[in-house]
């Protein structure tokens, strides 16, 4: 599944770059994310809960950034698995200064979705991935513009973060709200599963959509 | 008593099945533990690690098994059921994947738990780590062989096989005209409404295994399971309950689950059951149909084929447990009712990282028919001749029967057609569909702005393949007749059809005959239900068995009636002197007399006890060469297959805007020899046509580039509903008897599906005026075909 598109964020490239490299921002903005653990330079272990109807589950995976050319481009690689399926994806991301303190992002993702989610939800995958990308970037943009807060290291996790076991791992970042209670444009009934969530993560980790995003799925 | 053979008897099975009183696999074994499987989400991957620790706390969990737990023969690959000399690189899967998975859905871990919910919960918590490998998907990738499915199979080539009669290349080189065509058929699958399933009970006191499985061969499963579990054949019973459709996929055996479930039942000393769900059926059973063909045909000015060369590529999926049957059938049955002067066929059977490919109703014939019929139509178009005329000029003639095609068929025997009258069939079809009047209809439609077209397709189908089937008939002292044959039933109406045969042979009321199939306790020698063989094989076997029982009954009755057996007849269950109803005794009484008794258990039995004074005290009660009882056991083993034939015609309308194809009429003429039960034959044709329509217009297996089956559910896989199948399927029969069996019959089970893609391709081509070279044809496909054609021709 190939997805590409462009998006505009309301911050200059340097600030966008910093946000996308800040696990506290990521954990707060990735739809369904519960925790994010740095596992090395530019690599994280992530836990996401997502699902719809009967296809629900918790997914764990690894996300890493490479080929970084600050503040203009990088490559995001993500791989994850949960009981309903698997996802692996590579996303080429480019940031361009759009003047007026804004940044134009372009992205080109190639995702392989496997398992049950691939067999029963395929025709919904690309639209769901795009939707989650949109949610993600709306959230990132909100952080950038100060409309929302970032996530926190686990020691100061907000009530409802739902990850008591994380206390033993001070390097974890916990989402500032229950992962399942995203009250923005996110409609849980549209999600088809956590495999999709990770695809959305991979794509959405980089791209804000709102009404300005025009992805082309091929 | 009127003859039952040929009567339109209502199926005795239906009252039970339609009212929900059937017992399918999942209706059995309420007390059983339940198995679920962890299956590969990757089309091709190395297994790095299996971590079951997260599953261990799931309540109700009983056992988790991986490859490392499998002992002895279970740790070996599953059998390659049908070896072939050209199958040089046959590969079959392990029951649970060892270190590599080769298609999405391949079983890796078996979980046994108190119920399916808990088993799946536990399976969800098992973490398998993989190293994904490049997936080979589709015939182009398989042929390119940039990546290999099996590292030790060069070129992904399981087999390359060639057959030739005459010198096709020379014939084509000297032919007045030559055409080349590339023809493609997509994947589909049997998709029975009931998936696979197996239940096993181990009796530890008796050290015996009893299992039920939704199969097309109970004796095959028994032999395979006994071998894998090191059990004597006599210590394994395999019973086939009601089966909700097979269509070929259930002839494959043993499935991994069919050996793992009984193994676990023995190990755990508890009954264990596995019931496949729909998604599992899509990704873990078998598919069929995908082939690419390149045809080169040389023909003369009259359209007669002088040389035919077919090169094709068969996608056999990840493994080949069923050997090369599908491409062999394509390569031989492609010839249909025709006789090109020379013929050469060569195929490659290629591995891909997709579900394995085994016979699905038609089993290679729909592809062969599509290739041949498209070729004939292309010749007709090129020469400006009528499509029926070109066919007539290429037909084998009735006086040429038996006709030797000079090839080896799927049963390893010569491809010799035993009987048939193709010109008569075509004449019937033209009458039925009104072929000669169609041009006027088409012209009228055109003036109304409608696009309609007509097509026809002819096929010959090898049915009733060997090696044998057997039958057993016993007359009970009640006069009721119990019949058993070893092959299995998946809803075809075998109980009805076989009872008709026995009722006639024995001279008993149809209602008194009860037939059991697929139970090794009742009949242990059998092959299975496939290749339209039950009527021919088991029908003949039970007829021969009934004749033996009849002869015995006449002999015993002759003693009692003090008459010559030659003067007796059996009518309506009464043995009597011919033409003298008052003289008769019931068959039940004859059965009593045939079994000398010491103990009287009822009034009837008294007549056979030792002080009844009914026997000659100078002879032993049972003669040296005799047996007690009125019974017959017989086997039928024909020298080769018998060849049924048929022709279909369809009239379609295509929507100029939406490119939707609507079938206006669908006509079938069919020759399976004498019909035992026309109602059942027509039902078989109806079902076959429905599957043919599905394969031609709706069904495909949508694999993506990474080997994920994107439409693995009935949400996205379009099986035709009754709304997509022609409301009326017009049928006419021709009955040319086969000389190869005692009833003169030929098989009918697959007939309806074979020409589906071919006839609808022809009709769409006729409607659109655009060559059709690939099926199925969805509205999107037709839309694209129109666009490409108009671009090419503008």
Structure description:
The complex is a heterodimer of chains A (218) and B (794). With 218 residues, chain A is of the alpha+beta class. Residues 155-170, 178-198 and 200-218 of chain A have low confidence and may be disordered. The radius of gyration of chain A is 16 Å and the shape is globular. Chain A has a 10-stranded antiparallel beta sheet. In chain A, helix 2 packs across helix 4 and helix 4 (122-144) packs across helix 5. Chain A has one domain: Alpha-D-Glucose-1,6-Bisphosphate, Chain A, domain 4 (2-Layer Sandwich). Chain A has helices spanning 13-20, 23-29, 116-120, 122-144, 194-204; strands at 2-9, 33-40, 43-52, 55-69, 73-82, 85-97, 103-114, 152-153, 173-174, 216-217. Chain B has 794 residues and is of the alpha+beta class. Chain B has 3 domains: 14-133 and 190-284, Aldehyde Oxidoreductase, domain 3, CATH 3.90.1170; 291-395 and 404-465 and 639-792, Aldehyde oxidase/xanthine dehydrogenase, molybdopterin binding domain (Aldehyde Oxidoreductase, domain 4, 2-Layer Sandwich); 469-636, Aldehyde oxidase/xanthine dehydrogenase, molybdopterin binding domain (Aldehyde Oxidoreductase, domain 4), CATH 3.30.365. Chain B contains 19 helices and 29 strands. In chain B, the strands form 7 sheets. A 7-stranded mixed beta sheet of chain B has the order 3-5-1-12-9-10-11, with helices on both faces. The longest helix of chain B is centred in the last third of the chain and has 28 residues, at 534-561. The mean pLDDT of chain B is 95.
Q: Would you tell me which CATH topology of chain A applies?
A: Alpha-D-Glucose-1,6-Bisphosphate, Chain A, domain 4
Query: Based on the structure, what is the oligomeric state of the protein chains?
Result: heterodimer
Continuous helix count of chain B:
19
Contiguous runs where pLDDT drops below 50 for at least 5 residues of chain B: none
Q: How many helical elements of chain A?
A: 5
The value of Rg of chain A in angstroms is: 16 Å
Quantity of strands of chain A, as a count: 10
CATH architecture of chain A: 2-Layer Sandwich
Return the average pLDDT of chain A rounded to an integer: 71
Query: How would you write the strand order of the largest sheet of chain A?
Result: 8-9-2-3-4-5-6-7-1-10
Stated plainly, the CATH topology of the largest domain in chain B is called: Aldehyde Oxidoreductase, domain 4
Radius of gyration of chain B: 28 Å
């Amino acid at each position: 599944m190939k997805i590409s598109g462009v998006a505009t964020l309301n911050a200059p490239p340097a600030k966008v770059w910093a946000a996308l490299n800040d696990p506290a921002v990521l954990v707060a903005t990735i739809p369904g994310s519960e925790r994010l653990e740095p596992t090395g330079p530019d690599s994280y272990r992530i836990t996401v809960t997502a699902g719809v109807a009967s296809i629900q589950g918790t997914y764990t995976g690894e996300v890493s950034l490479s080929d970084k050319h600050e503040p203009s481009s990088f490559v995001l690689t993500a791989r994850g698995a949960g009981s309903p399926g698997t996802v692996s994806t590579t996303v080429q991301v480019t940031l361009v200064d759009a003047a007026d303190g804004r940044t134009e992002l372009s992205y080109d993702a190639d995702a392989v979705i496997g398992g049950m989610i691939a067999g029963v939800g395929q025709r919904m995958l690309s639209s769901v991935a795009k939707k989650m990308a949109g949610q993600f970037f709306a959230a990132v943009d909100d952080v950038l513009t100060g409309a929302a807060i970032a996530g926190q290291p686990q020691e100061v996790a907000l009530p409802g973060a739902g990850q008591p076991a994380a206390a033993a791992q001070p390097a974890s970042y916990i989402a500032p709200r229950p992962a399942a209670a995203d009250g923005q444009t996110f409609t849980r009934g549209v999600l088809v599963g956590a495999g999709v969530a990770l695809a959305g993560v991979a794509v959405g980790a980089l791209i804000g959509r709102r009404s300005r995003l025009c992805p082309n799925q091929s | 008593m009127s003859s039952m053979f040929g009567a339109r008897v209502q199926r005795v099975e239906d009252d039970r099945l339609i009212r929900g009183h059937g017992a399918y696999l999942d209706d059995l074994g309420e007390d059983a533990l339940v198995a679920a499987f962890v299956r590969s989400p990757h089309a091709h991957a190395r297994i790095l690690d299996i971590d079951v620790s997260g599953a261990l706390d799931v309540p109700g969990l009983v056992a988790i098994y991986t490859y490392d737990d499998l002992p002895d023969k279970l740790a070996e690959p599953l059998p390659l059921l049908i070896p072939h000399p050209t199958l040089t690189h046959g590969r079959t899967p392990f029951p649970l994947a060892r270190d590599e998975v080769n298609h999405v859905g391949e079983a890796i871990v078996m979980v046994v738990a108190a119920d399916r919910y808990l088993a799946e919960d536990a399976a969800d918590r098992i973490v398998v780590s993989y190293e994904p490998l490049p997936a080979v998907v589709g015939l182009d990738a398989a042929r390119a062989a940039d990546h290999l499915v099996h590292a030790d199979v060069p070129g992904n080539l399981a087999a390359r096989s060639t057959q030739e009669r005459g010198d096709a290349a020379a014939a084509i080189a000297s032919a007045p005209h030559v055409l080349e065509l590339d023809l493609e058929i997509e994947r589909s699958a049997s998709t029975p409404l009931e998936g696979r399933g197996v239940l096993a009970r181990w009796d530890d006191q008796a050290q015996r295994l009893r299992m039920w499985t939704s199969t097309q061969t109970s004796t095959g499963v028994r032999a395979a399971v006994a071998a894998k579990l090191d059990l004597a054949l006599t210590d394994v019973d395999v019973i086939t309950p009601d089966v909700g459709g097979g269509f070929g996929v259930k002839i494959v055996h043993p499935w991994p689950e069919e050996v793992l479930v009984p193994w676990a039942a023995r190990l755990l000393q508890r009954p264990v059951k596995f019931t496949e769900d729909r998604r599992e059926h899509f990704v873990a059973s078998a598919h069929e149909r995908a082939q690419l063909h390149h045809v080169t045909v040389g023909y003369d000015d009259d359209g007669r084929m002088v040389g035919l060369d077919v090169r094709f590529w068969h996608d056999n999926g990840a493994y080949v447990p069923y050997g090369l049957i599908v491409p062999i059938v394509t390569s031989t049955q492609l010839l249909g009712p025709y006789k090109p002067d020379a013929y050469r066929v060569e195929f490659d059977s290629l591995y891909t990282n997709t579900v394995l490919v085994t016979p699905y109703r038609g089993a290679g014939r729909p592809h062969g028919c599509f290739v041949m019929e498209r070729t004939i139509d292309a010749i007709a178009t090129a020469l400006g001749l009528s499509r029926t005329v070109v066919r007539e000029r290429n037909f084998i003639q009735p006086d040429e029967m038996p006709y030797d095609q000079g090839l080896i068929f799927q049963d390893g025997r010569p491809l010799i057609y035993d009987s048939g009258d193709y010109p008569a069939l075509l004449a019937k079809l033209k009458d039925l569909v009104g072929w000669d009047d169609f041009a006027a209809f088409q012209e009228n439609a055109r003036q109304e702005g409608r696009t309609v077209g007509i097509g026809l397709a002819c096929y010959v189908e090898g049915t009733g393949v060997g090696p044998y089937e057997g039958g057993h008939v016993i007359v009970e002292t009640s006069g009721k007749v119990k019949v058993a044959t070893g092959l299995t039933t998946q809803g075809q109406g075998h109980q009805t059809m076989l009872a008709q045969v026995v009722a006639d042979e024995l001279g008993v009321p149809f209602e008194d005959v009860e037939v059991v199939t697929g139970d090794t306790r009742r009949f242990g020698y059998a092959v299975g239900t496939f290749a339209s063989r039950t009527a021919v094989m088991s029908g003949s076997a039970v007829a021969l068995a009934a004749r033996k029982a009849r002869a015995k009954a006449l002999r015993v009755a002759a003693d009692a009636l003090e008459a010559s057996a030659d003067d007796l007849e059996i009518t309506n269950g009464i043995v009597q002197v011919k033409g003298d109803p008052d003289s008769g005794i019931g068959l039940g009484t004859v059965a009593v007399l045939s079994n000398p008794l010491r103990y009287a258990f009822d009034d009837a039995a008294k007549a056979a006890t030792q002080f009844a004074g009914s026997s000659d005290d100078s002879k032993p009660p049972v003669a040296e060469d005799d047996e007690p009882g009125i019974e017959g056991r017989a086997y039928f083993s024909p020298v080769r297959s018998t060849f049924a034939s048929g022709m279909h015609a369809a009239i379609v309308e295509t929507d100029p805007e939406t490119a939707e194809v609507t079938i206006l009429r669908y006509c079938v003429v069919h020759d399976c020899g004498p019909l035992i039960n026309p109602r059942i034959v027509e039902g078989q044709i109806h079902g076959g046509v429905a599957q043919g329509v599905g394969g031609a217009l709706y069904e495909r297996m949508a694999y993506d580039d990474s080997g994920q089956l994107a439409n693995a559910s009935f949400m996205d896989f379009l099986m035709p509903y009754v709304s997509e199948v022609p409301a009326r399927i017009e049928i006419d029969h021709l009955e040319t008897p086969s000389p190869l069996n005692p009833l003169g019959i030929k098989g009918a089970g697959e007939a309806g599906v074979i020409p589906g893609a071919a006839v609808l391709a022809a009709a769409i081509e006729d409607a659109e005026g655009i060559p059709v070279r690939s099926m199925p044809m969805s509205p999107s496909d037709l839309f694209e075909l129109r666009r490409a054609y108009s671009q090419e021709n503008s």
